Amino acid sequence: MDIINFTLNNAGLVLEYTFNHLSLVLIVLLISLALWISTGLIISWHDRLAGTVISLSNILFCIPSISLFGLFMTMPGFGLGRNTAVVVLVIYAMMPLVRSVYLGVKSVDASVVDAGKGMGMTPLQILLQIRIPMAWPMIFAGMRVSIVIVTGIATMATFIGEKNLGRLIHQGITRGDSDMIITGAIIVACMALLLDFIMARIQRRVISPGLRFDT
User: Fold this and answer.
1) Residues contacting 155, CB < 8 A, separation 6+
2) What are the TM regions of this chain, as residue ranges (predicted)?
3) Predicted pLDDT at 25
């Protein structure tokens, strides 16, 4: 009941932080999908480059988020604010997206690809009409993982000036107010679950029943 009372008594602030958090997550996801899906497709053509890019994405993902936020904050042209938050979160979305696209495209049965070649399809046609459609289940899996990761790590952006749900949690820790902490944490968790649910519904509509696995 205390959590409900806190939320009702501070509805304006909670809504502001929730909107800011959601807008940041959506901006990051749009940029990440465009950037990292393209990267995954490119490295699927170059195995040597793929090893380097995937290793780099793994290394970057292992860096503590507070350290990466702090590092970019000190770089010229970044500083405090949303731009830095977007760049850092896009970096954290790299690993699951690039890996899922690369592995999805490379895992397509060779016999299916050979059949396409036998029909006279060009490499680009094979990519667009065979490899990508058959890789969609794994690509969507990477998207859904990225959504959860970005939604959670976005709370750390409060340390570089973002007024999102992370600020609610941080202020709760500073003040020793468990209601603030729990309220922020619950909203973040619900947001991640909601976005994942939406992506799962899109996945079921986009992917052929013969290709998808249960979500």
Assistant:
1) 21, 164, 165, 166, 169, 184, 188
2) 22-43, 50-73, 85-105, 135-160, 180-199
3) 97
In a domain, 176, yes or no: yes
Q: Structure tokens of 150?
A: 């970005």
Structural domain includes residue 4: no
The parts of the chain modelled with pLDDT lower than 70 are: 1, 208-215
Q: What domain range includes position 106?
A: 12-115+122-206
Q: How many domains does the chain have?
A: 1
The structure tokens listed for 206 are 């986009």
Is 165 a member of any domain? yes
Q: Which of 86, 74, 77, 63 is nearest to 162 (CA)?
A: 86
In a domain, 81, yes or no: yes
Q: Is 77 exposed, middle or buried (0-12, 13-18, 19+ CB in 10 A)?
A: exposed
State the pLDDT at residue 20.
95
CATH of the domain at 56: 1.10.3720.10
